[in-house]
Amino acid sequence: xxxxxxxxxxxxxxxxxxxxxxxxxxxxxxxxxxxxxxxxxxxxxxxxxxxxxxxxxxxxxxxxxxxxxxxxxxxxxxxxxxxxxxxxxxxxxxxxxxxxxxxxxxxxxxxxxxxxxxxxxxxxxxxxxxxxxxxxxxxxxxxxxxxxxxxxxxxxxxxxxxxxxxxxxxxxxxxxxxxxxxxxxxxxxxxxxxxxxxxxxxxxxxxxxxxxxxxxxxxxxxxxxxxxxxxxxxxxxxxxxxxxxxxxxxxxxxxxxxxxxxxxxxxxx
Length: 269
What we know:
Elements: H1 2-8, E1 14-15, H2 20-28, E2 34-35, E3 45-48, H3 52-62, E4 71-74, H4 80-92, E5 96-97, E6 99-103, E7 123-127, H5 134-147, E8 151-154, H6 157-178, H7 193-199, H8 206-215, H9 217-239, H10 243-264
Parallel strand pairs: 1-2, 3-4, 4-5, 7-8
Antiparallel strand pairs: 6-7
């Protein structure tokens, strides 16, 4: 995000990392104007880019040091109860908090895998509360646009977590389970795009994704159980040698995806 802000905007960007070598690398790459020294006096917007538990702890520790009225956001892949706790921390310190979630990422993390163009044409979700100010929402939508957002959705913390369980977290569970076949070590030369697409995100960071799954477990359990139920129908058709049922199941999936594609064409930002 620092790289994107420096490439596409005129904002002054400070960055902080526990590993000072990363800070020096970011300064060398002009990804930041300077490493953050703990002085919040001229900070208008703070973006917390940490795992959820660490983000909450950092905010508790640093909120009292911020100027009153500072806008604080996070880029965590979970909102729900987490965002309400963040809201309470902000309110206790006269700060303004609204979370965002850029729907963009890579299978490998760390500064050296980061890219200024990661967010170009990406979906962004802005997650205000019922009493969030329109000004704060518009400011964050503007930031998303500056980073290159393709589509911006504004929704509640509850709707965010329900949808993310389906569109993101379930896919990560499936990818992780998929690579546990004993045939994995023999796939070279036999695999194509479908295998790569299905397994790319199996290299996810287990610490971060465990936090995300556990903090959204009710929604994720629902989606996972539904997937298992649907997979069972394909298994039953195969076991019964029932080609007609298999054809119907495949057709249902094709039609649903085709309708999904058609519904997305021409949608405005």
